[in-house]
Amino acid sequence: MLTATAPDLIATLPSTSLGYWDTAHRIKNSVHAREPDSTATIILLHSGVQSALAWGYQRDSFARRGLRVIGYSRRGYAGSAPIDPDDPGVAAEDLRDLLDYLAIESAHLVAIAHGGYFALDFVLSWPERVRSLSITSSMMGIHDTEYQAVLERLRPPCFETLTHDMKELGPSYRASNPEGVKAWQSLADQARPGGSTSQSLGNEINRQRLTQIACPTLLMTGDADLYAPPAVLRMQQSLIPGSSAVVIPECGHCANWEQPGAFNHHILTFIENSERCRIKKDR
């Protein structure tokens, strides 16, 4: 079921303020919801054309499994402070400050598309604060000549002239769910009130740095993703030791929206397995 995920809370951080929502905040006022495991928190990192608004198919689904779920908007996105083009800040540092603000020692990071860049940047800087890493349909910001050459072969020069829904939503979804396309576009229209924006990375993401990632890692994409198709996913998997890869059928760039059942199943199974392995290791 699609639910509203407006960033109705504000985190006042050292260098900015971020809008977010937090299922633990709602649970305090409900006797019917399952109390979340304080060690199992999911942080959702949105794409470049969406915001904290876009996780309506995930929030309650994840929370029903006893997980604390938090979605936040990066600077310049819905509910958060506008971005200063002369000083955009480092998104991973904002995420660190948000975890500190919420007194969260470590969390499971679940990122999609451009959010994957910042999730990787965060785990490279603060690996001890990441319980697991899930990245879906992201080019991941990898600086590598061979990898960049593959990405350049994928899309013709006219690609950037396409509308967001044509680039990001798969053909099967656009053909079968016009109301879903309309709802997705409405959230995209609300996502960036100040227009297109981005923040800096604190690390160069390259082959050497990716081999240093030691946390459980899941990579996913849709079989119709124009940005990160299965061939790119396999390259990414080869760069991160021990990572798992999943391809979701009949899906474009927005698996959490187009195929939420499959997306949620793979994420939840992966996180729960990661927690079980952690418990066994600690014994």
Features of the shown structure:
38% helix; globular; 8-stranded mixed sheet; alpha/beta; 283 residues; 12 helices
What does this 3D model show about the protein?
The chain has 283 residues and is α/β, with parallel strands linked by helices. The termini are far apart. The protein is globular and about 45 Å long. It is 38% helix and 16% strand. The longest helix is centred in the last third of the chain and has 23 residues, at 260-282. The chain has an eight-stranded mixed β-sheet with strand order 1-2-4-3-5-6-7-8, sandwiched between helices. The chain has helices at residues 23-27, 59-63, 91-101, 115-125, 145-154, 164-168, 171-176, 178-191, 207-210, 230-239, 255-258, 260-282, and strands at 9-12, 17-22, 41-45, 68-72, 107-112, 130-136, 217-222, 244-248.
* SS elements, strand count: 8
Outline:
globular
Strand order within the widest sheet? 1-2-4-3-5-6-7-8
Indicate the percent of residues in helices: 25-40%
SSE-based structural type: alpha/beta
Radius of gyration over all CA atoms, rounded: 18 Å
User: What is the subunit organization of this protein?
Assistant: single chain
Q: Helix count, per DSSP?
A: 12
Proportion of strand residues: 15-25%
Give the CA-CA distance, first to last residue.
38 Å
- Low-pLDDT stretches are 27-36
Which sequence of SSEs, written as H and E, runs from N to C? Answer: EEHEHEHEHEHHHHHEHEHH
- Overall pLDDT level: 92
Sheet of most strands: 8 strands, mixed
